[in-house]
What does this fold into?
Amino acid sequence: MGIVQRVEGGQEQEAPDLLDAVRASVRSFAKTRPTQRDAAALADEWQQIAAAGWLGLLADETLGGSAMSTEVMAALYEELGRAGVTTPYSAVAVLALVALDQCTPGVVRDELLAALSAGTACPVLCWQDQPNRDERTLPFETLSHDRTGTIAFRRCLIDLADRATHFCVPVDRDGTPGLAVIARSDPYLTLTLVPGLADRPLGQIEFSGAIPADAFLPLPDREALAPPSCSRASPLRRSFRGYARRSTR
It folds into this structure.
């Protein structure tokens, strides 16, 4: 069962002991977290986060995840924020994970989700915000092929682009919405890093080439990626609101 389906099906309120254990584990992690924030330290921290099971917290157990509730996830990120962890792990462990989870199961999708949970892959979701668009949907790039089957597009201001192993771009192929999964090593991909906030670079990708058939992962509809999984009526968003109300009482 997918993440959104689990949430839509209703989730029982978590036991306080479990939420307290999650918070305690983050506090323990923060105490031993080195103050040095160079590339090696960040890479080591990423592996620690993965080993703790936090990257795959929402992922299905068959894909190396824990299939935990959004209430547990909210407690995790609340405590990470208190600990001063500024790396946006949620961009991968929530946004990219939920987007990939909603795609049609297959080898590329399943292997990428498993690698995300294990910390050996860092897929990032690359949407291109546009003014005055319908807030329920993301702007999908319509793939138009030339005579050689080549397509071209660009995405800007991508967080975690310096760590990304795969870029997941919302595209529309012959009327079917989905994600084009482009490996960082793809010879047709050009990645440019620019200075961002908190000493964290942002990325711009340009792609001009052919996307293999198995690298296009169909989505059920365009609203599957409506922002923060992402629409106002989203069950994930409602779940966060419910947790926030209970935690502030």
About this structure: Helices lie at 3-8, 16-31, 39-51, 70-82, 90-101, 107-118, 235-247. Residues 228-235, 238-249 have pLDDT under 50 and may be disordered. The radius of gyration is 18 Å.
